[in-house]
Predict the 3D structure of the following.
Amino acid sequence: MNTSVTGYPRIGKDRELKFASEKYFAGEIGEAELLAAAKEIRKGDLLKQKEAGITYISSNDFSFYDNVLDTAFLFNVIPQRYKDLDLSDIGTYFAMARGYQGENGNVKALALKKWFNTNYHYLVPEIDDDTKIELTGTKPVDEFVEAKEFGVDTKPAIVGPFTFLKLAKFTGSKKISDVSSALTAEYIKLVSVIAEKGASLIEFDEPYLVRDLGAEDIALFKEIYSSILSNKSGVKVLLQTYFGDIRDIYNDVIALDFDAVGLDFIEGRKTAALIEQNGFPSDKILFAGVVNGKNIWRNNYKKSLEILKGIKAENIVVSTSCSLLHVPYTLESETKLSDDYKKHFAFAEEKLGELNEIADLFGKDYENEVAFRKNQALFEGRVNSEDKGVQAAVAAITDADYVRLPAFAEREKIQKDILKLPLFPTTTIGSFPQTSDVRKNRLDFRKGNITKEQYVEFNKKKIAECIKLQEEIGLDVLVHGEFERNDMVEYFGENLNGYVFTEKAWVQSYGTRNVKPPIIWGDVSRKAPITVEWSKFAKSCTDKPVKGMLTGPVTILNWSFPREDISIKESILQIALAIRDEVLDLEANGINIIQIDEAALREKLPLRKSDWYSEYLDFAIPAFRLVHSKVKPETQIHTHMCYSEFTDIIPAIDAMDADVITFEASRSDLQILDSLKENNFKTEVGPGVYDIHSPRVPSVEEIVAALTKMRSRIEDSKLWVNPDCGLKTRGDEETKKSLVNLVAAAKQIRG
Ligand code: GLN
Ligand code: ZN
């Protein structure tokens, strides 16, 4: 049985691409050096796969920033404002990715969006009325040829035309139907150029097929591919799908002249049934994605082999479920984790071995094979993963635990009486600038250069200063500033049982930004109070209310590598109980306003609307309620969300039953306000009045204008005034000026 990898990580085992790119951006190295570093990374990655014996290896899976941007660049989908900068090719490319400010002009980057249900972000191609779609680039061709020079015969992998068009933003009067045939013609040219160079297989990635598709989408897909497939220039074409099943278009896909079709058996809940019910043509190869490209656990061979055996197809290749871009490079880099843990993990490199073993076992009476038995032994228990107490606590949760009493309206009255806040109360989202002294203090403590006492002393000094600053500015609800946190998930993970941390397990989030998600290893519980001392200290510095600051269970889960041996729901509930302990401790220590951030709530929303509630919101929203349902009516619960589309899940957000929600709204032009009004949103709201991603100080007039707009949609008694997210990336000076203006604006409208 043959093996295939949809795509390999590309940031370099030690994040070489990040470091080379940053040096290039800083002018420390030139283009030639950057290109050379990239070539080394590609070479290493290709040879690794070749040595592992993978049959179908992708080229063009490398990117300096993002593959969707690469595709836009390849077909000249480059807005004029970037061309006008008159930069080199790579200069134009990076201007689209990161914006440009310099001698040649000043332009913002293309929009950045989450890639389906992952934490990877792509750049949104812009098609306007002047866009002249044309194959002007050569990247897939060059990288195919280069791979051949390294001795690796590859399948060039390219974002397919359907997904490309569906993800693009049309900024002029043109629609998809106005440009699809032009784009198709250029893809056909690309196929012929690649054919000329001697490729035998080309991979088109079409993950958009796993979304809900309408008749128009299906017609578009068929039109594009009938055309491409009747002009194959002798190359075979693999249609690669991932992140779900293609239930809306399966029969149309298998009726087309594809030579191979890649399907996802991990996230594609209906993939096996689709084949079972509709068959799979004997003249096509099925690339069966059974090795999870998104998680880091060892593959369960029994499950995978059973899936493969059950498929009624003649020609099967064992494949990754999606690109391995979403997992780290190799376990070899983890020197501190003991083998008791490591043997349960498979990063990209280890997954290559798994593909081979599965392929090898497939033809055999595998039950008795050593590789199989060794694999099965892994699933018979893990050290320190079980906590009967936690399991019992989750089992004991009752419906009443998800309900906070009294109901919102009554609580709102009680809280207004007790807190006595002015109309349009002012607050911030939690973090204050993480200046170099703050980061140095944490690092020094981590490295053991300073004692715990010194570390705490410094943070207390920062908290006291932060409180004093907020009092001077005249804010109504104060925060402690989050100086003890590196990251809103890692910080909690480090203080919870059941988590495991890695040293070098980086995955690309966007461009040069990589993240290192912690791993949920076992049952989760709280070791000891986490934030209580900091919040208590902050409160002791002032007579004003201080808001406690926590991260919610859904966000903690979504930004970790989750377990596969228990359900996501079960994991979220465990985390919810741990955070609930913290909420109750804060309350017991006199903190009567507590914010529980759910920045990543939207992220794992299923790709199909029909699954939104049953597969996710039906347990994610109650889990949030579980965290705060036991607090007194007097305690005010806040939550915060940012940078995603909320408009279509407003009722679910209201059902979180928080007392106040703050969220980012400044970039979406306050569109969300209409939706709040339409849905009779009950929760009090603080739509951010300015964008914290820019050092720009908003004027009082500007903030008043934003608030005036908000007042036309939100009752005065429910409106809060705050920035749109935490201030940790900002400097001290602009923060103070901005908040002074924010308070002045609130006072002005109170008047
Ligand atoms: N409380 C966090 C902060 O202020 C929230 C961060 C976020 O929403 N991403 O930084
Ligand atoms: Zn935020």
In short: The first helix runs from residue 16 to 25. The chain has two domains: 2-7+42-77+113-381, 407-434+471-750. The chain has 28 helices and 23 strands. The first strand starts at residue 2 and ends at 4.
